[in-house]
Structures are given as structure tokens and as C-alpha cells.
Specification:
The protein contains three helices and two strands, in the order H-E-E-H-H. With 129 residues, the protein is mainly alpha-helical. Among the domains are: 45 residues; 40 residues, no CATH class. A two-stranded antiparallel sheet has the order 1-2. A hairpin with a 2-residue loop joins strand 1 and strand 2. The termini are far apart.
């Protein structure tokens, strides 16, 4: 059986190790928080109209958009993708007789699969656009 001094030494060692692990965990949390903040800041930089002002009866005011449920604000990287990759080939999804119709139909099906996967929907679930 360990002596009281040996037990105290083991307890001290365990406490020191736990403290060290906690410090490492805090450092990881800090780095993760900094990385997350950097991603959020980049996303904010992509917001179209983030600094737009408009005239009101009370003078010029910075636009504050608060109806994210109905529609969110446009983001530059998404709009650039649409302008460069989607709109030049955009066509009727009800036909596969043309290149644009076929490409748009494939894009819609790919988007539906992605959205369903993100939402946890299965093959038997419907997605309505």
C-alpha cells in the first residue's frame, strides 16, 4: 500500500497533468474559435450591399436587413458562380434535346441530391423547389 506521501505525490502529478491537458484544450479551442471567426469575417466580406445607405425621413441610414427567413442577402462568391457557371448554359429543364436543357436538368438533379443529403432526406422523400 502506498504511503500518504506517495499518494499525495501521485495526486499532485495527476492534478498537474489534468491542468496541462486543460491548457492544451483551451489552446485548441482558442485556435478553433479564431479560425471560425476568420471564416465568418470572409463570409461577411462577400455580402453584396453590406455598406449601402438609403435616405429616410430621419436622414441617411445604413441598410439593416433582418428578414433572413424569406430570402437572405446575396453573396459575391455565389453570384459569381451563377454568372460564370450557370447562366451561360441555363435552359429549360423540361427538355434534354439541347445542350443547355440537358446541362440545367443535370444541375437541378445534382442540387436536389445535395440538399436532400444535407437535410437527412432519403430516396423516398420529396424535395420541392
Amino acid at each position: 500500500m502506498p504511503s500518504l506521501q506517495e499518494a499525495a505525490a501521485v495526486d499532485q502529478a495527476v492534478t498537474s497533468m489534468m491542468s496541462l491537458l486543460g491548457a492544451m484544450s483551451s489552446e485548441k479551442k482558442g485556435a478553433a474559435a479564431a479560425a471560425a471567426e476568420q471564416r465568418v469575417e470572409w463570409l461577411r466580406s462577400q455580402l453584396i450591399g453590406k455598406d449601402v445607405e438609403f435616405d429616410t425621413p430621419f436622414g441617411r441610414r445604413l441598410l439593416t436587413y433582418a428578414d433572413q427567413t424569406a430570402s437572405g442577402r446575396s453573396l459575391r462568391y455565389i453570384e459569381d458562380y451563377l454568372v460564370n457557371e450557370v447562366l451561360p448554359f441555363y435552359g429549360n429543364t423540361h427538355t434534354e434535346d439541347s445542350h443547355v436543357g440537358s446541362k440545367t436538368t443535370r444541375l437541378v438533379h445534382k442540387a436536389a441530391r445535395y440538399i436532400k443529403r444535407c437535410m437527412g432526406a432519403g430516396a423516398g422523400d420529396a424535395l420541392l423547389f
